[in-house]
Specification:
This protein is of the alpha+beta class. The strands form two sheets. A five-stranded antiparallel beta sheet has the order 1-2-8-4-5, with helices on both faces. The protein has a three-stranded antiparallel beta sheet with strand order 3-7-6. The longest helix has 14 residues. The two termini are 26 Å apart.
């Protein structure tokens, strides 16, 4: 079967699942790595492989930006426009097979009534790790995801609120 479908990520993942169930951890890991080489955008498989290898998918933690601190710093700067991006960060980890994992962290502060519509809907891009509205005073509100939509509707929108989201992509 490997010779017939050598580049099928589904076949390779299934082969890894079979090998793991049969107790052949080493070859299961090889099959999973090959599946990720063919199709790197498999977050569940990347997590499975990470667990098998005893590693963690937190390559970004050492570069994490403190949202509260960033919002506090932004208060010291004269801001213009309807919204301002307080945090706009991407951390990329390149895998040995050439694939990459990228975490994106963004915080957008609403400055005017016009900014409410701009920041009130955020697209769902990749695997969402965090999405929330931060209202003045520091309270967090969870977003609403409408069925069949690739966006979050952010609650509690108004002047002075911030919208924060983090998402993870595998390419």
């Amino acid at each position: 079967a490997c010779a017939i479908l050598p580049e099928s990520e589904v076949h390779l993942k299934n082969m890894g699942d079979f090998l793991l169930a049969a107790g052949d951890r080493e070859n299961a890991i090889k099959a999973y790595r090959e599946s990720l080489r063919v199709a790197p955008g498999q977050p569940d498989l990347r997590r499975t492989l990470s667990a098998l290898e005893g590693t963690q998918l937190d390559f970004w933690s050492q570069y994490a930006v403190d949202t509260k601190q960033a919002l506090k710093q932004a208060e010291k700067i004269p801001l213009r426009g309807s919204t301002v991006r307080v945090v706009d960060q991407s951390v990329i980890e390149i895998q040995p097979d050439g694939s990459r994992a990228e975490i994106t962290h963004e915080v957008q502060k609403v400055l005017t009534d016009g900014g409410v519509a701009e920041a009130g809907q955020i697209p769902i891009m990749g695997e969402v790790l965090e999405a929330r509205t931060i209202i003045p005073g520091g309270q967090y509100l969870e977003p609403v995801r409408l069925p069949q939509q690739r966006t979050f509707t952010m609650p509690g929108m108004g002047r002075g609120v911030a919208v924060e989201y983090r998402y993870l992509n595998f390419v």
